[in-house]
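Encode chain A's predicted structure.
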Amino acid sequence: MKSFFTSHRKALSVVIAVILLGGTLSYSLLQTSLFPEITFPKIKIIADAGQQPVDQMMMTVTRPLEMAIKKVPDLKVIRSSTSRGSCEISAFMDWKADINLSQQRIESKISEIRGDLPAELSIQVERMNPSILPVIGYTLEGKGRSPIELKYLANYTIKPFLSQVDGVSEVRIIGGKEKEYWVELNISRISALGLTPEIIRNTLNETGFVRSNGYLNDYRLLYLTITDALGRNKKELEELVVSNTGKRVVRMKDIATVEIREAKEYIKINANGKENVLIAVIKQPNANLIELTDQMRKKLDDLRSALPSDIVIKPYYEQADFVHDSIRSVTDALWIGLILAIVVAILFLRSLRASLTILLTIPVTICLSLIVLYAMGQTLNIMTLGAIAASVGLIIDDAIVVVEQIQRTHEEHPFEKTASLVQHAIRFLYPAMVGSTLSTAVIFLPFLLMTGVAGAYFKVMTNAMIITLVSSFFVTWLLLPVIYLLLYRLEPKRKSTHSEHVHSPNGRPWIAYFIHRPVYSLSLIVLLFLSVVYVLPRLDTGFLPEMDEGSIVLDYRSPSGTSLDETDRMLRQVEKIIVAVPEVATYSRRTGTEMGFFITEPNKGDYLIQLKKERSRTTEEVIDDIRNRVEATQPALRIDFGQVIGDMLGDLMESVKPIEVKIFGSDRKLLEETSIKIASLIGKIDGVEDVSDGIIAAGPYVNVLPDNAKLSQFGITSANLQYQLQTALEGNVVGNIQDREQFTNIRLLYPGNKTMDVQDIKNLQISMPNGKLKPIGQLAAVHLIEGDAEINRENLQNMGVVTARLNGRDLGNTMAEIQKTVNTAIRLPQGYTLVYGGAFAEQQQSFRELLIILLTAILLVFCIILSLFREFRIALTILLVAVLGLSGSLLALFLTGTPLNVGSYTGLIMIVGIIGENAIFTFLQFREARMTRNVDESIVYAISTRLRPKLMTALGAIFALMPIALGLGAGAQMHQPLAIAIIGGFIIALPLLLIVLPTLIRIFYAHSQGHPGMFDED
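Encoded structure for chain A:
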């Protein structure tokens, strides 16, 4: 390797330039998103069978679907919720399964039993991933325009126009009204004419079509012949002949009133106090969110110029704002930390060339990392950027160690050529660089064992860290010396004498003081051990780090059976509260539908509330304010709060809420009673909010029981009776009319259907085949029945489920109190079981895996050190010091009130490798000195020599991570626990590396004091 860096300086300089250019290009090409594009192993099936009762729905739809889906390979858990007329089934597959293949298999199994399911049943099967939720939301307003006009404009003008933007998967139109032709029958008139609703239905069914009659061949031309029986307008429908007896022609207008009306929908949409149409944009999985949003804004500007002046389109939610702010804040934290670290380097090295070398090395390393990330198909998201930001401390560590070694060598040998000094320094450090890089990188390899949502996201982060560390090794070993040489002329050569040496082995008397008094080191070891024993049980614990997104999801449900109008009235009062909150910028409300893919009743829905960027209160504080006001003024509403992204992740996991208590058994009534008791118990626990007992009643219903004997006596069937009942209540779609670009339904119904009550049903007149009328009481029994509760099941077992959210408390301690309270107060009969799920179950699984990862990482670090130095005792010594560093991380978490979650646990694992890396360099220096000195002199020399780089790396890393640890900016909270854990480890690492490690080395090598150059091998 003699003169390698000088002989290859030009070639390596080109490599540096290529890396910088390639990194800049990769940064511009990397797709931007909030989180990595993770395919979640959840498939949801929603089946809709009209208005069947819950028990009937369970027997005819849910159970057959469950049995079919259960046969699909790689299925882990199947959960279902059955309500009136619909069921929602969630199939959770193995994380290793091919989700596309699993969806095909589920659809195939459903197709096999399709003939056994109700004929009118509609089934939707969707893979659940972040891309199914809107990333942009707009409101559409038009002064003086009807909901029908607005929806038509949205569907046939705005939707096609916005769908042209690259990266758009779907543009959903929510709200507005569909146009329908209502044919309101005059009952007395059709009875007098001997007509029935069935005759009128058949008449309408036999029109309204376009069909081919075949081809006509005439003089070398082939003509297609068609019969066009489509209706074109209201007048044609009114003139339609219903009956012609030869004596009298009966037209539709003679027996019915034809009107253009709004279609019946049990949905209400509201945005900022007005009933508007909402436009939701869904992006394709791999689309760049920020670019998509920018293109959508430009497209919207073009669209506005083409729309009528009274049409207003305004955004009410743009996820890109939070993503952009998050990425910018993490990037800013990275550069701020980097500048602070460089300031540290300048203060310690007092050399412009050395400081500039470090300053230039870090961008080269980051650019190389970005090139690799782009080549691997990764996106620029909060996890990959956070990994790079968290790794800056390690990058600085590598650069400082190499530059300091070159600088120190230069100071000790001022008359040697710079090129040879650089060569000598790199040759000396190379074994330790390899060992230290491996000892840090191998700690991330066990993360491949991690499963679940935490594993999916944090494996992306740890993979990015491995890439960054390997890039750092390559740059510091091969390119940093070239940068140093290129900057040679910036600092003139100084004349120096031996007396000017900074790193004199005799210059640190305090080292000898401590190594000759091992009681201090042993006391510190005991103290750190006791601190872990004290802190660990008292440490708050959580699952995934939480972020302040600046957006709120408010889910609500009015009492079972509440009408849409009454629910809307209650929500109007809620909106007065929302508007009165000064931090609220905009809001949108959906009733009878939701943002996600769910079965939704008319008394259920959600709000999306966007907060102002400049505000004095956090999102959680605003949530508490709104919650208290709503609960005080609208006690009948059941409400539940969350943040958009957190709510989205909950939808993709097994449970939406962090707290979930599941009770399994056969008796549904007993399950409901137990759920109510548990909900009451945990609702009294401090820090538990939005408690739900999981009992969702479907509301009362009217059961009409036909008397078959009487029906047959009058020549009428049960199906005909049902058809006339539906005509009286909802009306029946009996045809359509071509209306511009769409077909508009024709609905046949009786007058007064909007004002009909339960008593009116009992007095309803039914048409007989001869046109005469009979009261329904003579043909059927009418009963009013209370509604049944929805049925929840998991793995084919009946289940009661109690859920809740946290407010101001950590997950671990809250769940411990819940478990103690529930286990003390609840006694379940034999055959019933109680399971704690939700984020707690995910946390317990992740913590078990992380403990295995920590132990595996420790073992791997031990193997690296042992293979590097081939001394069992020194490998154990370094490992002991590295593991003791965990105490600093735990103390930092405890003192700052930061929970031990997946992020901070990752920081604990990282600190083991970081301290092990620093200890390797110290022992390398000791082993070199041992060739010419005794043990005490070697230790003093090694610690004195490594003192400056240790202080620089520790302070540099601490300052580099400080902006993240302070949680500055949007999204910074995601990596705040990790940064705090690493900083705490770095702080405690200083006394461990400067006092404890040299003391232990002296204890182990005390027997060979007078034998320089001798090493005992174990």
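Residues 494-506, 1014-1018 have pLDDT under 50 and may be disordered.
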